[in-house]
Structure formats: C-alpha cells, structure tokens
Amino acid sequence: MSKEIKLLDRVRGVYPSLSKSQRLIADSILENWESTAFVSPRELGERLGVSETTVIRFAKSLGYSNFSELREHSQILIKEKLTPAEKMSATVKKIKSGETTFERLLTSEIENLKDGISKVSSDEFYRAVELIEKAERVFVAGQGVSEALCKFLEFRFRRMQIDTRPVIGGGKAFYETLLLLNDRDVLFGIGFFRCSQDILRSFDYARKKRIHTIAMTHSRVSELALKSEVTLVANRGPVSLLNSLVVPMAILNALVLYIAERDSKKLDALKKLDEIPDIFGFNGKH
Asked: 3-state DSSP call for residue 140?
C-alpha cells in the first residue's frame, strides 16, 4: 500500500459506504487518528463498543490487508509528522490560546495519571518485580528523555544495593555495556513513541542470549513491547502534544516501593546510608 496516501483521506473516501458500527471507528480516527497506532483491534473495539471483527473488517475496507498494516501506517505517519518541535509548538499554542491554562495542565496530568495507572497490568507488574528480585544485575536502558527515568531507577536501586548498570547515551559505549549481560541478569528498557533502534537492538540481543527483559512503553503493541517478556504500559498523554513523564515516574516509584516492602534487606541497605559518617570517619557535612 502506498504510504503517501493519507490515512484520513482513505477514511473519508469510504465513509458513506460504512455500516453504523464502522462509522464509530471512522469517527474515532478522524478525531484522533494518532491513538490508532498504539492499540490492538480488541482494545479499540472495547473502547468504542464494537466487536474485534468489526475493527478488522473496517481496516480491510480501507484497503489494508489487516489491522496491523493500518496500525503500522499510523505509526509511520506519526514518525513523519509529529516531531518534538511540532509537539512543543502545539502545546505552547494551546497555552497561548487560553485553551490550556496552568490549572488545566495540572488537571490533565492528574487525569493522565488515573488513566495510566488503570492500564498497568498487575500481573505484568508483579512479574517485573520477580525478575528484578531474582536478577544478579539490572541493566537499565533508555535514550533521550527516557535517560531521566533510567537515572531515577538506577539511583533508587543502588541505594537498596541492587546492582544496577545504566545503558544510556549512544554509540560504541552503549553496545559495550550490553556485552556485559548474561543470563542471570535482566534488561529493563524504557522507550516510547520514537523508541530508538539502539534500544530495540538491545532487546533482540537479550532474546538471542536468553536474557529476561522488561519494557516500559506506551502500548502493549509498540515495537518495544512486542520484543519484551514483560511490559509495563505507561500512558504519556496525547501523542500529538508534548508528552509527560508523570505516569512513567509514578510506576517506577511504585516498583521501587513494592520491592523495598517485600525485602527487609533492601530497607536495611537504606538505613545503612545513615551510618556512612561513622563507617568512613567524617561528620557527614563534607
């Protein structure tokens, strides 16, 4: 299928011939086509109150062989059209127009947090905890804005004496760190809408070496999620606007707290930090 033909043009072209149920899907795409890139046909059907079969038939009515091809087309359009600069401009425009005030921005973050937490699978969360607890070392990989999340997790884990290795930045150093991985470790990768090829390659490498993997990403059907053993879904808000780190940070914080709660040794490690002046012979002020 030609990628030059816009998704919205295809939807508008077939709209008159669609059934009532299919028009619900069409309306959803016309209003917020970006969200189509990050859902399965079942998830989209549940959201709109139609069957999974109806969603698949709708994709075929647009000329796609299946829903996955429609989703892939949407993802390509996002990569082409929604650059960081464009998302920042769209967000600033909303603020200047008065459509989004400071109070509404905060309210939006709270709504994203509630919605985001509801999408986290408790089974996946507990599985992530188990993998981290059993691991000899935790390698935390992320690039761009995700590096901030990696550094947060590394800081918290190290204070609980969990051997944590950041895999950030890029170039040769990124891959040199990955060479240290073995099958007693776990790779925790963080990547969202524009997940880098370095992160995706790291998960391919981990799978080849039979190393456990945990992904934090925006959807269960993202490129990173499909390569991961365990997925923690973290909603970062509308993809067309500047995205937030509130939900990912909240999930990581919950992960840290739950691990500390389950293992008294982790709390003892934190308490030992207070003994540093006595252990090393200084007053703690310098």
From this structure: strand
Which of 81, 106, 139 is where one domain is finished? 81
The total of structural domains in the chain comes to 2
The pLDDT tens digits along the chain (286 residues) read 444 457 878 888 898 999 999 998 988 887 667 767 778 898 888 878 899 999 999 999 999 999 988 888 887 776 666 555 555 455 555 555 554 555 666 666 666 666 666 677 889 999 999 999 999 999 999 998 899 999 999 999 998 899 999 999 888 999 999 999 999 999 999 998 778 899 999 999 999 999 999 999 988 878 898 899 999 998 776 554 446 788 899 999 999 989 988 877 776 766 666 666 666 666 655 5
Distance CA 9, CA 244 (A): 30
**Domain span at 73:** 7-81
Identify whether the C-beta of residue 205 lies closer than 8 Å to the C-beta of residue 197. no
Are 50 and 188 part of one and the same domain?
A: no
**Cα separation, 214 vs 81, whole angstroms:** 29
Whole-angstrom distance, CA of residue 214 vs CA of residue 56: 29
Q: Is 17 helix (H, G, I), strand (E, B) or coil?
A: helix
> Do the Cβ atoms of 21 and 50 come closer than 8 Å?
yes
Is residue 99 included in any domain, yes or no?
A: no
